[in-house]
Specification:
Blueprint lengths: L2 E6 L3 H13 L3 E7 L2 H11 L3 E5 L7 H10 L5 E6 L4 H9 L2 E6 L4 H34 L12 H11 L7 H15 L10 H11 L7 H29 L4 H10 L2 H12 L13 H16 L2
Parallel strand pairs: 1-2, 1-3, 3-4, 4-5
Helix pairs in contact: 2-3, 5-12, 6-7, 7-8, 7-9, 7-12, 8-9, 9-10, 9-11
Keywords: Phosphoprotein
Pfam family, one: Response_reg
InterPro entries: CheY-like_superfamily, Sig_transdc_resp-reg_receiver, ST_Response_Regulator, YcbB
């Protein structure tokens, strides 16, 4: 997914430097830039960029006022503030206005790349979760009334078809995935919006396996290893499916939603070149997988 950027800064050299860093680092495409707040508002509302880099202090209007004006007019872009200001009150105002991060002046390439990669990751996660919700709403609309036992299905019954579609049934880590989802959805009624730290989830799951207190720490490590092996296997299964049939609905739906697509592409390349990494050794984002699965299960159960 290539993101679009707009840069609003009265310093032309800063705009050029930021554009160079964004495009040289393959972070996205700069589709517009402006030298002032009023010009920036017009351009942003016209082009609707994904991400806006906004200078805090500009001659005609400060960046916080610009962001508040844009929000009031329905702008959904994500904002990163650029500033030399160290005043904590100003920083607090900026975050309350809805910015994602600060980039300090003078501009440092490593800081810009690091910050914008984090913003990109947040944007991608939000986009994937929106896609899940949209897809689930469409699926619900297609179901006939007798086929929707929403209040009667268990977490296990809901999750198993998803795991099956990714080739995870039979993997030892599938038990841990089901246990974690049951803990989140049944014990807390699905009221949590964001997952607790992974180690805490592993600890809670380990406690349900009737382990002695002195064995919990060892079981926590074992759960993490089983999950990593299972998710690596799922990634490999989907990548293999994508190689043979890129338009396969299972590949199109699960691969970009549950995994970082760069990891999917890398796995496809490894399989194609015959150098696939052993199970459990690949790069997988366990927290993203569990977060997406959690939202999908909540949607299906109507909680």
């Amino acid at each position: 997914m290539s993101l679009s950027f707009c840069i609003v800064d009265d310093d032309a050299s800063a705009r050029r430097m930021l554009q160079y860093i964004i495009e040289e680092s393959s972070l996205g495409e700069v589709t517009g830039s402006a030298g002032g707040g009023l010009e920036g508002v017009r351009q942003i509302l016209s082009e609707a960029p994904d991400i806006v880099l906004m200078d805090l202090l500009m001659p005609d209007q400060d960046g916080i006022e610009v962001i508040e004006s844009l929000r009031a007019q329905g702008c959904s872009s994500r904002f990163v503030m650029i500033s030399q200001i160290e005043n904590q009150d100003m920083v607090g105002r900026a975050y309350r206005s809805g910015i994602e991060f600060f980039i300090r002046k003078p501009i440092n390439r490593i800081e810009v790349e690091t910050v914008l990669r984090k913003v990109n990751e947040r944007y991608a996660m939000s986009h994937y979760l929106d896609e899940i919700k949209s897809s689930l709403r469409k699926l619900e609309g297609l179901r006939s009334a007798p086929f929707v036992p929403t209040g009667r299905r268990t977490v296990r019954e809901t999750i198993q078809p998803i795991l099956m579609n990714m080739g995870l049934i039979g993997e030892s880590g599938s038990r841990d995935i089901i246990t974690i989802m049951e803990l989140l959805l049944e014990h807390e009624g699905g009221s949590v919006d964001h997952l607790p730290p992974l180690k805490e989830l592993y600890r809670q799951a380990a406690a349900t396996y009737n382990k002695k207190p002195e064995d919990i720490a060892k079981e926590v490590k074992a759960i993490e290893q089983r999950l990593r092996r299972a998710l690596t296997a799922a990634l490999s299964n989907l990548a293999s499916l994508g190689l043979t049939d890129y338009g396969n609905p299972r590949f199109e739906y699960y691969a970009p939603l549950y995994f970082d697509f760069e990891d999917v592409r890398l796995k496809m390349k490894q399989i194609e070149e015959g150098r696939e990494t052993p199970a459990g050794k690949g790069k997988v984002n366990i927290k993203k997988f569990l977060q997406v699965l959690y939202i999908e299960i909540k949607e299906q159960l109507g909680v």
